[in-house]
User: Which sequence fits this backbone?
């Protein structure tokens, strides 16, 4: 059995009262924002109640479209997400947004500050926006984000936008989580040169050049088009379109929604949607299992004794790392 986080503390931090999980799940499924928020808090708190939550949510998931948005700070991700919400709401969709900040230790729906543009949607019951830090105690982005996505999916949101800052590994991780990954670029940010370096040429299903109202937008498009033409994509693969937007006034967002629809239709018709979702589930299982395993030998808590003892022996030459790893696994895998 996969072990759960420390039962002594998880599930009731921040002074929350006891939670009746079935009731909470039922309320979330009727679209009650508070209940949806509480379920996502259980994910953030790494609560042992998650086992029950996920079992109840499972039969209701798999319907939502997952759209990932990534790009360097300042390209206009928040502005674009907000404009995308407006467009999707216009089409009658319910929209969930997870804004992942890989550098922030803060979480808990901190929507002020840089998320201020999304406040336009703050009073809309059919829009749920949540900031999440990805540096939890457990497996980071790969542990918490898919579970938060599941909560929104089972709560009846039609599209879930997962927005993340394109730094380090996060943009590659987001591509693993999303059905459709949008890479956002903008003029004046040196993105043409950055593109090749950051590995974004492989991950985009759609490329959007925002700030089309600014000088240099067409140069970014030309550079990107050239770079994409040189990048290797397998035969029969999706050919990512390049779109232009001025997110500030919503221009070009209707075309972005059309492109998302077209990509989704392609994913369905080729069987790629199922492949991507199966791959995502695989990573999710792996993240939970590896995290549980690490917890057993105390690698991510204060109970480090066993791993520490082995480490001291390896460092002192009394054992080698392979033998020590065997010992660790033998003790914890039975
Ligand atoms: P993020 O850091 O990628 O989330 O970027 P933001 O959405 O916070 O936007 C960064 C800055 O670019 C803000 O000052 C926005 O007002 C501005 N911005 C966003 N979209 C556009 C646009 O289409 N045109 C122009 N000129 N500025 C924009």
Assistant:
């Amino acid at each position: 059995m996969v072990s759960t986080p420390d039962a002594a503390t998880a599930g009731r931090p921040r002074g929350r009262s006891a939670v009746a999980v079935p009731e909470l799940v039922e309320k979330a499924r009727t679209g009650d924002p508070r209940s949806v928020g509480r379920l996502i808090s259980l994910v953030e708190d790494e609560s042992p109640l998650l086992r029950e939550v996920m079992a109840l949510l499972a039969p209701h998931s798999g319907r939502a479209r997952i759209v990932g948005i990534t790009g360097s700070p300042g390209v206009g991700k928040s502005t674009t997400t907000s404009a995308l919400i407006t467009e999707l709401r216009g089409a009658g969709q319910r929209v969930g947004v997870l804004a992942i900040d890989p550098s922030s230790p803060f979480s808990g729906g901190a929507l002020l500050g840089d998320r201020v543009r999304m406040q336009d949607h703050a009073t809309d019951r059919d829009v749920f926006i949540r900031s999440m830090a990805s540096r939890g105690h457990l497996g980071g982005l790969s542990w918490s984000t898919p579970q938060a996505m599941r909560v929104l999916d089972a709560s009846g949101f039609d599209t879930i936008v997962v927005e993340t800052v394109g730094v380090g590994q996060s943009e590659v991780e987001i591509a693993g989580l999303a059905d459709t990954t949008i890479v956002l670029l903008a003029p004046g940010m040196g993105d043409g040169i950055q593109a090749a370096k950051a590995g974004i040429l492989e991950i985009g299903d759609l490329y959007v050049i925002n700030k089309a109202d600014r000088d240099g937008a067409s140069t970014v498009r030309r550079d990107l088009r050239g770079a994409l033409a040189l990048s290797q994509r397998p035969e029969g693969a999706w050919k990512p379109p390049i779109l232009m937007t001025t997110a500030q006034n919503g221009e070009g967002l209707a075309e972005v929604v059309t492109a998302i629809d077209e990509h989704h239709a392609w994913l369905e018709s080729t069987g790629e949607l199922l492949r991507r979702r199966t791959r995502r589930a695989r990573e999710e299982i792996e993240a939970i299992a590896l995290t549980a395993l690490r917890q057993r030998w105390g690698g991510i808590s204060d109970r480090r004794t066993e791993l520490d003892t082995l480490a001291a022996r390896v460092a002192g030459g009394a054992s080698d790392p392979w033998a020590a790893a065997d010992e660790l696994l033998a003790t914890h895998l039975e």
Q: What stands out?
A: The first strand starts at residue 65 and ends at 71. Confidence is low (pLDDT under 50) at residues 3-15, 105-114. Residues 2-270 form a domain with the Rossmann fold fold (CATH 3.40.50.300).
